Amino acid sequence: MPRPTHRTPSTASEGPMSYAIFQLARAHRARAAAMLREMDLHPGQELLLMQLLDRDGQTQSELLESVGLDHSTVSKSLRRMQDAGLLVREPAEHDRRVLVVHLTDKGRALREPIAAMWRALEETSALNLSAQQAERFVRTAYAIADAINSGALPRDESA
Questions:
Q1: Is residue 57 a contact partner of residue 101, using CB atoms and an 8 Å limit?
Q2: Of the ranges 32-41, 48-57, 86-95, which one carries the lowest mean pLDDT score?
């Protein structure tokens, strides 16, 4: 296993896995943000675009649920994306208070650039891993996310 290239604070020894996850997320987010800037996108906007590329014409509420971000973040991102000509938001026919989001041709044209960005990010991320290690990592990462999202409390070892 490669040695860390950063200094770990002594208090992080109480949670070395959590600190490693933090460092990984920070590095991954920074690399992704740099790649997104080259496409004139802000972090998170690609997630909204990917959801709309899979199913155009979703409501803002459906998008909120699919990406797991808060209302104000999604609303701000959609407004920026609309200003950039990537999508339009229109009142739903069944309820004028509900906004339905549709991609424009410019937004649809980002399918391959976003896919290429994710491929490149994946290749960079897995550079020092075997295919088996990468597969195990994905399973482990989802297991950790499931544990965190379950809201379960740690087992009390002293009981």
A1: yes
A2: 86-95
Closest of 106, 97, 100 to residue 78, by C-alpha: 100
| DSSP reduced 3-state for 111 | helix
Q: Which of 50, 54, 55, 16 is CA-nearest to residue 36?
A: 50
Distance CA 42, CA 32 (A): 10
Closest CA to 87 of 110, 111, 105: 105
3-state secondary structure of 59: strand
Confidence band of 51 (pLDDT split at 50, 70, 90):
very high
pLDDT score recorded for residue 157: 55
Phi-psi region at 85: left, alpha or beta (left = phi > 0; alpha = psi -120 to 50): left
Higher-confidence residue of 68 and 81: namely: 81
Name the one residue in this structure whose structure tokens are 């104000």. Answer: 72
Residue 95 burial by Cβ neighbours in a 10 Å radius (0-12, 13-18, 19+): exposed
Q: Indicate the pTM of the whole model.
A: 0.83
Are the C-beta atoms of 24 and 125 separated by less than 8 Å? no
Q: Closest Cα to residue 88, out of 97, 76, 100?
A: 100
